[in-house]
Amino acid sequence: MISNEMAQRINTQINREMYSAYFYLGLSAQAETMNLKGVAAWFLAKHGEELAHALKMYRYLIDQDARVQLSEVAAPASVDGGVLPMFERTLEHERGVTATINEMVDFALSAKDHATNIFLQWFVTEQIEEEATVKDIIGRVRLFGDQGQSLLMIDNELAALAKQIGQGAATAA
Ligand SMILES: [Fe+2]
Ligand SMILES: [Fe+2]
Question: Tens digits of per-residue pLDDT, 132-151?
Fold first, then answer.
């Protein structure tokens, strides 16, 4: 059993994870229109990961006998200006998510809610990895540029990364 306030915060986070999924689905569609199949596949894989995050929290609430309250998911904004801004916005977005996860941990600790604190640690670790991956991609796009041959190379790299995410999800399931 967890407190109503903790449950409410997790419900809010479910909405954020659903928004993240929606945000990445939008970016995947954008990449499709640019004929960047690898970039599109990567964002689609991220979409799947974010849905899995929302479901993990959903399951936790049910296991803790807390109420699941679903709310409206906002429409994601499109990102103009090419591949680099798409990844810059992604990093900005993930940093925002990291901040909200950390706030939830702070709250769980102050409420001496050990179960939720332990549950959230998985997300703390996940955020480190997500931010690092996006930072790497941005670094490579900045180094090589997001036009012509370099763009093709980045697109191929992201296709391979998307495959790894897919395989990771398959083993985790
Ligand atoms: Fe997430
Ligand atoms: Fe994420």
Answer: 999 999 999 999 999 999 99
